[in-house]
Amino acid sequence: MKPTELTDDLIDRAGSAVSGKTEDVSVHRTLLVVASAVVAFLIVTPMYWLVSEALEVELPRAVDLFFSSLDITVNSLVLMLSVTFLSIVLGVPLAMLTTRTDLPYPRFWSVVAALPLVIPSYVGAIAFVSMFGSGGEVDSILGYTIPRIDGLSGAIFIITLYTYPYVFLTTRAALVSADESLFDAARTLNSGPLRSFRRVTLPVIGPGIAAGALLAALYAVSDFGTPAFMQASVFTSMIYWEFENYNTPVGYAALLAIQLIAIVAVVLVIEAGIGRDEDASGGDARGSEIELGRWRWLGAGFIALLGFVTLVVPVAVFVAWIFRSEGDPIPALEFQMEFAFNSVYLAALAAAVALAFALPVAYYSGRTSSYLSRVLERATYLGFAVPGVVIGLALVFLGLNTFPSIYREGILLLVFGYVVRFLPQAVGTVRSSVLQIDDSTVEAARTLNSGPIETFRRVTLPMIAPGMVAGAVLVFLTTMKELPITLMLQPIGMDTLVIKVWQAHSAFAYRYAAIPALALILISGLTMLVLLRQEDAVR
Q1: Per-residue model confidence as pLDDT tens digits over 84-130
Q2: To 10 degrees, the CA torsion angle through 132, 138, 142, 146?
Q3: How many CB atoms lie within 10 A of CB 357?
Q4: 429: nearest Cα among 533, 379, 358, 370
Q5: Residues 368 and 274 in one domain
Q6: Which of 140, 238, 375, 504 allows an S-S link to 512, with CB 3.0 to 4.6 Å?
Q7: 28 and 107 share a domain?
Q8: Stated pTM of the model
């Protein structure tokens, strides 16, 4: 063979290899698009059935229901706005206190201020209702309630206590990442503390406050357990009671759900319209701390008081209930280890399925910047913006009308409900890891004759593993605490910790809620510890 022929042959082979790799990449991307589209379709489908059920209601009855539910609308808006405002009032000063002042042991107090996120708000609600609500322990002893912890005001109080950490954490993150020399520059211009905060600090941390406020607002308007325990008439509790009332057409509950979704949509639109201020992060200069003098001990005492109210009081109440034996025993409410096993099993199953669903969506969105990838990714976020009671209602309609055998089986639809609700947590963390992948590393693997699947297994997967673990842990943690979806889709005979807490409250047998509630707190705390250790390992 002549040299020129040999060269041409090598060129042809190289071209064929490149062509083959290009075809493999094309097929690989097509499969990613198809898988992402299937996941997005599955997540959006329950909402279609909800709308179809709502459209079954005749227009005159729909109008009557709308006007008859105005008081529920007002209560829901008052709850959402009050919790959001109070969370900002608590969260922002606490973030400033733990980052910008000479508060002693700031890291310890930061952990104390964030720990209420470990306890589900309805667990705190049942503890406070039993102690301070009408007919509670204090009411029985003193003859009157001090203070009155029930109704709409009680729901606002409890949800704020367990929601303000959202604002605290997002604001604190903004303060930590900001260039502290900006704050010192404001002082050199003879700006007082309040004026400096308004003109310099607030624009810097504004996006962080807005992000935390959005989370607090969405949590407040979608919370089901706390308003139900407090007997507050809001959309979430009323939707569930309409669902439970078999004499009422299911379309009524669907219409209430549509109204609640409309409120959530307005909140999201308002948050999107706020905009984002210019980035003020990345500064290397360390600013000076604000000296509080004697007031720093008062600040530490305030955080300690919050920790006592949100953590110590509920745990102490539950522990006290364990040693009580008042009234006749109720065998159906006696604690069994099976309840904890069922909760962990369902949460682990939901985490695994959510991770499997999230992987193609997150990888496709993180590796491409196309309009289609953004649309498919955002479609998976629908469930997180919709309250759990609405998702549960939609899946009940879907199961009854389309998959009755799956509905009777129970566990498949229940796990799917968890995935619809919490999939964005897995998508977000996995996508963040995908965005950190160095393209040159992937290209180097492909030049060594590694196909797309082999490259993903040997190069990409180890790099995004921390994000996958974090996403799975987040889904596990939130699934453990999810109440409305569990109530509405619970398989017959498969009781969980949250179900036993609900049943104990319904029977006014609070002592039977003690062990399930403590088990929830313990498992949630251990899961949070795993998540924090995972973040430290990544760093």
Answers
A1: 999 999 998 898 888 877 788 888 888 888 888 888 888 888 888 87
A2: -30
A3: 24
A4: 358
A5: no
A6: 504
A7: no
A8: 0.79
